Amino acid sequence: MAKKTNDMEFSEAKKVITVHDIDPNILKDAQKKSKKKKGLALTIILSIISVVYVFPVAAVLVNSFKNNTYVKTDTFALPFNDGMWAGFSNFEKGMTFGNYPFINSVINSLIITLISTALIVFCTSMAAWYIARVNSIFCKIIYYLCVFSMVVPFQMVMYTLSKTADTLKLNTPWTIPIVYLGFGAGLAIFMFVGFVKSIPIEIEEAAAIDGCGPVRTFFQVVFPMLRPTMISVGILEIMWIWNDYLLPYLVLDINEYRTIPIHIQYLKGSYGTVDLGASMALILLSIIPVIVFYLICQKYIIKGVAAGAVKG
Question: pLDDT: is 166 or 20 the higher one?
Answer without folding.
Answer: 166
